[in-house]
C-alpha cells in the first residue's frame, strides 16, 4: 500500500473506489448546504473543510446551496453572513444556489408522486399523526386518509397550494410503510401549509417542502456525486435513497447521476455549544452582544476575536475525518491560533495593570528612541523605535518588595532587564495610605551585557496611549454545558467570560487598523476590535501565550484523596501523568516508565484513549504514552479503525523523535 493511499480518509477512499469502478472524474461534484437560520459556527468548519477540501483535491466544483425551506426562521442576514464566513476561510464556490430555486420542480414531482400512488394528503392533527407513528419498538398504524383517491389528493394538494386551507389543516405525506423499522420511513411529511414571507420567493408559496424531501432532490437536480453530511443524518439515508429513486424515473434522461449520501462524525468541542437554536438564545437573552460576539463559537465571533483562517483550517486538518463521534478539546483550537499568530503577529509592549517606575539616575526631561525587533519569528518584519524616559510603567505583578529566589522579576535590591532597554535595580518604594505601592524608585545601568535572569515589558509613561482591552475567556465553565439532562445549559455560563481593562500602549500602536493582530509581550495575542476608532482604540484578547485552563481543571476529590496512595487514581490518569515528562526523560528512565505504562494499559479501555488522540501537537509526551497504551490494546485484539490509523500516521511523521520512533515501531 502506498503512502498516498494510507493517508486517505474514508471519504476519499469511497471516492477513489467510485472512480476505479467507472465514475468519470469530471462528474465529481460536491456541495455545502447550510440552512440560513443562523450564523455558521466552528462545528460547520469541518463540513466546509471536507467538501471544499475535496473540491480542491479533485479539482471539482463545489456548490454553495442554501437549503431555505423554512421561511419562519430564515433571513437574508444569515445568507450574507454565511457567504462572508466561507469566503473569509479562503474557499471559493462554483455556484450560489438555493433550494427555493427548485420549489416549482419539487412541486411538479410531488404531483407525479400523488399520481403514482406514492403520496397522499393527510388531514389529521399533528398530535394524531405523532401517536400513529409508533415507537422504535412498536410499529405505526395507517392514517385513515391514507387510501384517498388520486383525484381527491390532487384536488386537496392544489387547494393547499392556492391557500384555501388553514395552517396545519392538511399535509402531504409520502406513502411508504408505517411498519418500517426506521421511523423516518413511516409516511414522512413532504409538504406543510405555512403562511410566512420567504426571503427570496416572497409570498408566492404558502406550502413549503420539508427538509428531507427538498435536500436530496436538490442534490439530484444539481447532479451532486457525493452528498456528505454528519452522522445524525445516517438514519435519513434510507429515506434519501427512496425519494431520489422515485424522482429518477421522472428525470433520468435529463439528470442521469444519482447522488450518494455518506456520513462523517461532526465536530464536537469541549466548553462549547454547537446548536444554532441555543446560540440564538444567548443572543436574544443578551448574554452576548450578538452573533459576532468574540466569545461566541461562530466563525464571525472567532474572526472578530482574532482567529485566523489558516489557524482554523489547520485545526480542521488536525481533527481529521472520522466515522465515530468524539469530543475535541478546545485547547487544540487555541493551540492552532497561538501557533499561527506566533509566526505572523508583531510583538509590542502594553501594560494592563500598571505601577510607575521612576528611574532616579536618569536625567529629567530626557528621552531616547530605542530599537527593537518586530517579530523574532519573521526576519522580514524588521525593527521599530520605542521611546524610553525617566518614568515608565511595568505590571504590578512584576514587582514584589520581598520574594523568593525563584521570583525572576523585580524586587527590592534586585535587578531586572527591561526589554530592548537597560537593566534597572529597585531601591525604594512609595506607598499610599493603604500601604499599596504607587511608585518604585530604581536606578539604571547602561551595562546591558550584564547577566540578569528576568526581562520585563514596559511602556514610557510620557508616551503611553490608553486603550480599552477586552479580555475574553471561555463562555462556559463546564466542559459539556448542554449534556446535563437535569440542568439548563445557561446555568454554566461563565460570569467572568469578559473583563474590560485600560491598557497603556507603546506609541507605535496609535494608527492601527481594525483586524490587525499583535502579540502583547508576555500577555498574549490581541487584535483590534470592530468597535475601535482613532479616538478610542479597542483590543480583544484572542488567546494567551499558553493554556491557562490546563492548570485550572479541578482534580476530582483532591482534598479527600490527597493522602491516599497513587494507585487509587484511574490508570488513564496515571498514564497521562507519565506523558508530562516522558519525551524528556533519559533513555534508561524512559524505558522504566514505558514498562509501567504497558502494565497500566491492562486497565485502560479504548474509549478512554480515543479522546486523547486529539492532544495538542506540542504535548508530544502525552501522545507518546497514549500510543504505547494503544499498541497494547492492538496486540490484545483491538481492531484498527479510522481514528487509530490517523493517530498513528500523524505520529510517524511528528518532529519529536521519541514519538515518531514509537509510532514507526508498529510497522
TrEMBL record:
NCBIfam families: glnS, PRK14703.1. Belongs to the class-I aminoacyl-tRNA synthetase family. It comes from the Bacteria. The keyword Cell inner membrane does not apply. Its EC number is 6.1.1.18. GO terms for molecular function: ligase activity. Keywords: Aminoacyl-tRNA synthetase, ATP-binding, Cytoplasm, Ligase, Nucleotide-binding, Protein biosynthesis. Residues 549-570 are annotated as: Disordered. Residues 555-568 have a biased composition (Low complexity). InterPro entries: aa-tRNA-synth_I_CS (IPR001412), Gln-tRNA-synth (IPR004514), Gln/Glu-tRNA_Ligase (IPR050132), Glu/Gln-tRNA-synth_Ib_cat-dom (IPR020058), Glu/Gln-tRNA-synth_Ib_codon-bd (IPR020059), Glu_tRNA_lig_a-bdl (IPR020061), Rbsml_bL25/Gln-tRNA_synth_N (IPR020056), Ribosomal_bL25/Gln-tRNA_synth (IPR011035). Residues 455-529 form the tRNA synthetases class I (E and Q) anti-codon binding domain. This is Glutamine--tRNA ligase. Residues 27-342 form the Glutamyl/glutaminyl-tRNA synthetase class Ib catalytic domain. Residues 345-444 form the Glutamyl/glutaminyl-tRNA synthetase class Ib anti-codon binding domain. SUPFAM superfamilies: Nucleotidylyl transferase, Ribosomal protein L25-like.
